[in-house]
Amino acid sequence: MRQLRYSVAVSLDGFIAGPNGESDWIITDPSFDFAALWNEFDTLLMGRRTFEVAIKRFPSLDAMGKKIVVVSTTLKQYPGATILSDKISEAVAALKAESGPQPGKDIWLMGGGALFRTLLDAGLVDTVELSVIPILLGSGTPLLPAGNRCPMRLEESSALPNGTLRLYYSIAR
């Protein structure tokens, strides 16, 4: 079964977006191989707001060779994307069970926090991969809204030269 991996940048004080949804605080480090990370996935799963940011940043998102799945009750259709509007947990469980467009590739849960919480509480998230950016935002979109407790196991950690910490956790089941 394919893994559902929540991989996201987070501020040191626990926000995945600034108070106005901004992500200009997310710094990159040339030593991190983003292309290698990108190649581990064949499917991108995200909420509507994350999708709207993604298509502004990458207008040809649908041409990047990934299946795009958007969870939204307001977005009814979008060219090149599959829209999930109800029975989200069931639909994501089925997506994990599929062989996927490219066998052996995982599903990248890109955001947002509420979708992460829903899928985590449903037992569908397999890993949480954080890039902790050295900044305190003070407010914004939290990494995770309130919900159930979820124990995790640290699998790997590393520090990048720019001060970003990469933390890779598996869900302790």
Task: Describe this entry's structure for a reader.
The strands form 2 sheets. The protein has an 8-stranded mixed beta sheet. By secondary structure, the protein is of the alpha/beta class. Helix content is 20%, strand content 33%. It has 4 helices and 10 strands. The chain has one domain: Dihydrofolate Reductase, subunit A, CATH 3.40.430. It has helices at residues 34-38, 48-57, 88-97, 113-121; strands spanning 4-11, 15-17, 41-47, 67-71, 81-84, 106-111, 127-133, 141-142, 152-159, 165-171. It starts with a strand and ends with a strand.
Write the layout of secondary structure elements.
Layout: E1 4-11, E2 15-17, H1 34-38, E3 41-47, H2 48-57, E4 67-71, E5 81-84, H3 88-97, E6 106-111, H4 113-121, E7 127-133, E8 141-142, E9 152-159, E10 165-171
Parallel strand pairs: 1-6, 1-7, 3-4, 3-6, 4-5
Antiparallel strand pairs: 2-8, 7-10, 9-10
